[in-house]
Amino acid sequence: MPGKSNPTVVNSWNEWDPLKHIIIGKADHSCIAWPEPALDAKVPEDSAMKGMNGPRPLETVEKANSQLDHFVDILEKRGIRVDRPTPIQWNRAIGTPDWQANSMFGCMPPRDVLLTVGKEIIEATMSYRCRWFEYLAYRPLIESYFMEDPKMRWEAAPKPRLTDRDYRRDYLNEKIGVEKRLKWTAEKYFVTTEEEPLFDAADVCRMGKDLFVQHGFTTNLKAMDWLQRHFPDHRVHAVNFPGDPYPIHIDATFVPVRPGLCINNPNRRLPDDQRKIFEKNGWEIIDAAQPAHTSPPPLCYSSVWLSMNVLIIDSKTVCVEASEVNQMEQFDQLGFEVIPVPFRDAYPFGGGLHCATADVYREGSCEDYFPKQV
Fold it and tell me: Which residues contact 302 (CB under 8 A, 6 or more apart)?
């Protein structure tokens, strides 16, 4: 239980400082969500999951939890404290005065919900209706951290109404086609509008004083304005990645692995004008290795590029999915100790190793890695 051995310290400024305390999700009671505007826009048109909804098969839940538990064991044996959320019964109807949904989603990917910036943990707004109440699974942990660490700040971003005005009706057409989707995303025409601030925490990449935030299906510009006002001492940068017809969450597209080095999905390259700040400050951006798989596991929303969804333990150590031999080889060549973690059975429940975690404490302070601004 949290706080039983050592009191909690909340502190994490980036993705690579030495990891000491983390949250790892659970697959219990997870559901395939029912149709809704934001979700429909994200599911590929040729996906076998079209029209599927309701509780995920128990056998798949058990396999996912087995791999999640193994991941916990790997980290704990390295002296890292791991906490787990408290799943609720996700297979129940929910609603507000503005909308209703037939079920929720799950709590395997805490990275989507919780954003740690320094000594603060923020509950993200979320942009799917089925995920509106997901923060409840993490409340017992957040409340305990707040009691144990007198310097911790606990914030909840403004809860959105998620009315139909938050979504572009053009995306409700199931036959848009990939070509048009690529054109729309290149033009920054996403399913989410600017009606109110919307963001998933997994769209935020933390690099000390700079927050790089993906503008896409799950995070809009108004949310970036909110984040900039909320963190006035930080610099918030909007980034986007043409080449992705379903742009959600930055951590399978653009991943900083240590100061001065990022890996970038070669199919979704950071545009030249947005690379300038990295080039000006001596950072190198290299293409990520090709995935080892040509398709995701069954009943998985995510792409094969979860291969680059890794968890950095420190600037010399990285956890990579055990079957992703190309990505492991690339990190080995970059001088990392690579820890293989079997995780493909957990992919369908919300993503890869980074998605399945949320930072609580990394040793280190807020550094300025980009003193030369463009």
Answer: 252, 296, 347, 348, 351, 352
